[in-house]
Amino acid sequence: MTLCTPYQTQQLDTNTLPEVMERIYREVVEDYGKGKVADYIPVLKEVNPRQFGMALRTIDGEEFSIGQASAPFSIQSISKLFALMLALDIYGEEIWERVGREPSGMRFNSLLLLESEGGIPRNPFINAGAIVISDIIAAYSSIPAKRIQDFIAGLSNNPDNRIDPVVAAGEKATGFLNTAIANLLKALNNLHSDVDRTLDCYFKQCAISMNCIDLARATECLANRGCSNFNSCFSANNTHKRINAIMLTCGLYDAVGNFAYHVGLPAKSGVGGGIVAVAPGQYSVAVWSPELDDYGNSLLGQAALEKLTSYTQTSVF
Ligand code: GLN
After folding, report:
1. Contacts 24+ apart (CB under 8 A), 46-53
2. Which atom of ligand 1 is nearest to the CA of 296?
3. Is any atom of ligand 1 closer than 6 Å to the C-beta of 168?
4. How does pLDDT run across 71-107, given as a tens digit for each residue?
């Protein structure tokens, strides 16, 4: 029989954190070369794969970073998190009439479930669900992608976090599956704007560039009951709780169970190689490394987060 130590909520020790982050950096770079950068658009394919950055921000506003934490990269599907935060804040629970809250178990751009489930996407973090959220924001704003861009600029306190027009053009030029998804949503009466207008918003939000430091800042409110040092992010109580729950169950597509097993934090990933994660009541953290695994999630990013929650004992479990 093994001996048990009594359960205590472990608080992050910020004195040893710089050392822990250096150790993580040293260890994860051993995995360079094991994954593959996103190659569906030339500008993403050209990114140097051997890069790693990590930034952590505590709810007291202390910041720690290592590696290429201030290098901007394409946030891709991490934008689905910000779009959901915005839509939920504007419309509240109404949004759940058009999109579900269950993991899909399918690749992020799959069309398979959409028809059989009557045009209601499983969750807002797969492409079909995010396109519905873009449509919801498009009903509220005349320039919806700019609305999302401004929301992110406010959350991160940095107006330089903008849509990269070259990435946006690449998204559009290669977005055949997303166009199919949007058309199916339209045919099944779950898209209110024009297909092109909604897709324009979706492609542009995917093309926003940010760095790890700003991503950690922008997600601080999820760790801090809806408030950050820059802003009060949500008008309704408990919005952070809802969003964190969806991150935990749907944030890494069909690899979400594995991520919860290894890391144990609500998180959202993107094919640009970024992952943001939240330790409620403690910190938000962003990692970036462009090499992806077969599910489209950053290989080194996941390894770094697993090491972080193991070395600091700060998973939610
Ligand atoms: N732009 C990508 C797409 O729409 C985003 C996917 C992702 O980051 N998983 O497919």
Report:
1. 47/73, 47/272, 47/273, 47/290, 48/290, 49/290, 49/291, 51/288, 51/289, 51/290, 52/25, 52/28, 52/287, 52/288, 52/289, 52/300, 52/304, 53/211, 53/212, 53/286, 53/287, 53/288, 53/289
2. 9
3. no
4. 999 999 999 999 999 999 999 999 999 999 999 999 9
